[in-house]
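Expect sequence, tokenised fold; for instance:
***
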Amino acid sequence: MATQFTKAEWKTINEELTDNGENYGLPNRVYGSVLMASFNIRKLGGVSKRNKDTWEFLARVCSRFDLLAVQEVMDDMEGLNKLKSLMGSEFGMIVSDKTGAFPGDKGLGERLAFIFRWSVIHRGEVVSDVTYDRSKVNSVLIENFDQISEAKAKYEAAMDRYNRGRRRTKPTLEIPVFTSFIRQPFCVSFMIKGHPGTKPYRFMAVNAHLIFGTPAQRKEEFESIMEWIIARVREDHRTYYPNFVLLGDLNLNYDNPDRDIKDVEDYLKSFDSKLGNRVNVNFPFLDVHPDQTEQFTSNVKLTQRYDQIGFFFREEGLPTHLDNDSMGKEDRGPDFGVFNFSELFSQALHGKSFKTLTKAEQNELVKRYHHKVSDHMPIWVRLPLPD
């Protein structure tokens, strides 16, 4: 059974991070810029689930960012509060209620959180879940009644076989149309303060942990959150924030990268062309960073691109997809990246790159931290402050 890293191993890891942090994608804080990030921290719950060194490592990493969207926070907020406490009093926090399980029902409910640096980030007045209202759900049900009835009939037949012992597993009812998110995304208004006398960035930040289910279910949820955000941005926002930023574990389906990456790219980039000059849509992580040879991955096995940050905006100043080819050219940004702690752990403990380890060595190393640190890595975007 794999064990957590020892104190001596953490010492080696932290020394390597101190000496070569940028080599692993942990960005430095640069005056005149702001760092926004997203991090799915696996089952962030009770403090006893992680040891002291792990908590200190997580706090060290998370405190690098000015605005951090955290997914997979458990109903027990002890661990989240521990993390914020270690990060220091310069950070504020706002957290959603539990979503994904109705109170009293079985199921793994989660919270979504934002942690932000008071000196750079100002929280606005609006805090809300992202939902489809009753009239929208009713219209979807009526318009797709025949499909839903067919799915219900198949479910009842499968339940009959299960009850008579002719089926081993209990079936689940899957409605073939989108009616609601498995976990309601969390939306909070923020403002990034610029230099004195400059206009700040004003935006609604949407923190999402979308479904990890069938490809069809993933596609439904992803397209639904996209349509919701696009519809909001297209409305007249003269009285409130005109920009949206989507951060989170979107569980995009890249099981067949050659096919799936192009499908997602074509879908997202179609919004930008359709909306013209009215709204810009930019998902930097769909492009290859100028300093890289392939897209960033965000899971610890370096095989998937589940996590994303997307910009939807009217105002000037935020990076468009045309800026992605020149990311990282200026110290203040714009720029984007992933803190690849799998590579950090491999170099610190094995003296070689994670990708050069054998599959057995990779699996053995990952077992030691994918539960205790996380199975996702933080992704980030750097923006120059308005000037």
Notes: Residues 162 and 170 are 6 Å apart (CA to CA).
